[in-house]
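User: For a benchmark we're assembling, each entry needs the component sequences followed by a predicted structure for the full assembly. Here are entry 17's components. Please fill in the structure.
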Amino acid sequence: MFKKILIANRGEIAVRVIRACHEMGIAAVAVYSDVDRASLHVRKADEAYPIGPAAATESYLNIQKILDVAERSGADAIHPGYGFLSENAKFARACSDAAVKFIGPTAAAMEAMGSKTRARQAMERAGVPFVPGTSRGLESFEQADQVATRIGYPIMLKAAAGGGGKGMRLVHASADLRSALEAACSEAEHAFGDSEVYIEKAIINPRHIEMQILADEHGNTVYLGERECSLQRRHQKVVEEAPSPIVDSDMRCRMGEVAVRVAQAAGYTNAGTVEFLVDQEKNFYFLEMNTRLQVEHPVTELITGLDLVHLQIHIANGERLPFTQEQVQIRGHAIECRIYAEDPDNNYFPSPGKITLLLLPSGPGIRRDSGMYEGWTVPMDYDPLLAKLIGYGTDREQAIGRLTRALNEYFVGGIKTNISLFRRILSNPDFRAANLDTGFLDRLLKQMDQATDQPADSETTEAAVIAAGIFAALGASAASAGERVPDRPSAGQSTVSRWKSAAQRESLR
Amino acid sequence: MTYDIAINDKTYRLDLQQADGRWSCRVDGRNVEIDAVLARPNVLSLRLGNKAYEVKCERVGANVHIWVGSRRFSAVVRDPRSLRGRIRAADDHGPKKLSAPMPGKVIRILLHQGDEVEAGTGVLVVEAMKMQNEVKSPKKGTIQKILVSEGTAVNAGDVLAIVE
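Assistant: Structure for entry 17:
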């Protein structure tokens, strides 16, 4: 077994992998950029190495710096987490050249799958169902225009190297195509260093359901059931659950077998996810394969009782899968909420800053994978994911009840988070009835914009009034509460922006 | 201690006395039976009669955010005897400023000085945490001035443009 694993990532996923290492008696090496010195993953690791400035291209995306740390620390394997270098074939190859085991698929499998256009070509050969569109990147606007006209609007533009909704645009009419194409290309170039974009027919209000697979290096591939990830905003997943409320065992078996075929066609090893779009008739289409551990892997862990990070490490160590497909059992229901540092009152803009108060939920059926702590300043340089809160129950209803209860216990003060959004989602009648599709969240947000908040009852308001007075009487707050802040912005600006300037000052300390 | 506490456009006069760890409390002259324990800084366990509340406190500039359970109240606490407490908000008319909603970088400017805008028209694009966000005009009018250029790093609250 490996003695020491380097985690080439940050945030909650770095902490997650460090924990797995420690559970298996393996030393964990962290890397961090200048703004991450105080991050939780550095505190939890056995060794930690600085790798440069905040900009990811000069730190977490810098292959040479990561490999230098591997050499200096004597790490014999690297876990890439998700994002950053996790789906970078060049990195996987560089690891193997440096005789450090990359915990993930081979560079060749990644190349086959990492580019959405190439994956599509491979899948066409393997007879996997997919959505009509181009299997190659677009060369010009004229070509895009022709293809879009041929398959018919609405169409979706997607970055070939993409993920997480970056470089993705829905286009309803040819008049909007040129500007959407430019935006998609520039966003793709910016996010992935690759401006290749392709076209797919847009399936309106589909479900997004994905299948987790695991493959060892001896030719065994299994599927571990699906995750329903239909709740998305700007193509970013927000809530995921497993199993999907609409997938029965027959459909699971058919999707699982397609997913296994996809993986085998690419010679895939380690953990991976095959994403499908599902239309209203429950037809499923291959969307893409993610050649990494997913953010939402905990829901699968809870319903299968397996630890995917442990299994990734065992597989990378050359071991055989310790179970067969028939032994995989699905039990109970799990739902995950992605807690982001973003402001629900301000169009969900990112909201970095210092966490001044943190109250944590616990109790039955609650799992919290987090990268934050009280007193930590959330840097503005990276993805705003702070933590994942996962509720598990015997069935969906119990999972929702536990998660709702835990969300009410969870409090993050000093920065804005989207916790209130999850309360709305979880209490929504359509969510409760599992009427989900990828347009669900946009519709809910629109309703919330129009609906006015119910006024608080007089008792609750009275509690707030009295508490405000007690806090003022007890603390230095007696002075500061009524005091002018130093550079009070001029009138017309909301208290929000005043607060944000304070947050910015904090984050630049 | 006496405070004027403004919450939801209404101001309450609160009288608080603390003796031997017990509080006595009057809201607008009416006696309210309370029992309060500070569980940790900024977290109060409050009983009104026998009703129990967990209350959290966040300070946001001159305001205090009070969270009763998961409900947020924005409160302004003033000591009526202190002159300092009397801050007047100035009027809110005339040209509107577009300010940066978050720290980040201006990556695109979509309109120029003199351009007509509708309320909600995107004027420029700010990027932070890998997300691009359009900053929109708050009203119909004309762009009086653009104060930044593409590539400018901005702080939250920085004025980016003025619409008249």
